[in-house]
Amino acid sequence: MREKVFAANWKMNKTVAETEAFFQEFVNYPGVGRGHQVIVFPPFTALAAVRGLVGGLPIHWGGQNMYSKDNGAFTGEVAPGMLKELGCAFVLLGHSERREIFKESDADVREKIGAAHKHGLKPMVCVGETLDERKGGQAREKVVRQMAAALDGLTDTQVASTSFAYEPIWAIGTGLNASTGDAQEMCALVRERIEMKFGGAVAGKVPVLYGGSVKPENIADYLKQADIDGALIGGASLKADSFLQIIKNALGGKFA
Ligand code: PEP
Question: Can you spell out the DSSP letters for 127-188?
Fold first, then answer.
């Protein structure tokens, strides 16, 4: 059975002081991260603080983005090795806000995935359609295209240390949710694309998450779906109590 994964994407929120306040609440939950996986994606400026604040808790952290080059004249960018130096195990890549606002292409995302693996970072790759694409019946086609680019040139070992998040863009930060049926269908599609290229044994190991207005009230229904292994959570991960409640509700009311 695949471990459940709960990932917090704080986006451009939280100073170091606010990050400290967030982790103070975790001392009351020594079971967090045990028997399931918790990953926090803070802004770059809070990564060093997170490293100190998680203490002995089995919580992972990662960058929300990075550039694909090792170093050089790329003003404003952050290199994979810089994330590694701060203890990041993960990096979030291809979030729809990167793709839509900062115009990252499928090829850009693919290059970053390769760079992440080269540096021993586990990429969590986001895919998903816009509302117009869904209404126009192009959701599957879009995700198939994003998956083809993301998987291009990867080895079995690299795919096995990659995770994916299906995030319908219209559900991110809007309070609108994909139905559990639609979310399952799209997460199954993500897994099917992995299976077609790498076989069932590899595809069966890869975590596929749903993201889009996940809250304490709706997490349990998503996690009942066969191909949904966890959630990438934005707004509801900003407050420690709501993030912890999501994990708790997903696990049937208690930390494993
Ligand atoms: C996200 O940031 O990836 C996300 C899913 O945000 P929210 O949970 O706020 O919809």
Answer: E---HHHHHTT-HHHHHHHHHHHHHTT--HHHHHT-EEEE--GGGTTTS----HHHHHHHHH
Average pLDDT value for the chain: 96
- Banded pLDDT at 256 (limits 50, 70, 90): low
**Is the C-beta atom of 172 inside 6 A of ligand 1?**
yes
Residue with token string 């990867």: 154
Token match 């995770």: residue? 163
Q: Read out DSSP for 97-113?
A: HHHHTS---HHHHHHHH
Strand partners, 166: 127, 210
Check if the beta carbon of residue 196 is closer than 8 Å to that of residue 231: no
Q: Return all residues near 247 (Cβ < 8 A) that are at least 6 apart.
A: 6, 32, 36, 38, 255
Using a 6 Å cutoff on CB, does residue 9 contact ligand 1? yes
Q: Which atom of ligand 1 is nearest to the CA of 95?
A: 3
- Which amino acid appears at position 126 of this protein? C
Pocket of ligand 1 contains residue 97 by CB under 6 Å: no
Query: Catalytic residue positions?
Result: 95, 167
pLDDT tens for residues 198-255?
Answer: 999 999 999 999 999 999 999 999 999 999 999 999 999 999 999 999 999 999 887 7
Q: Indicate which residue's Cα is closest to atom 2 of ligand 1.
A: 234
57-66 burial string, b = 16+ CB within 10 Å, else e? bebbbbbbbb
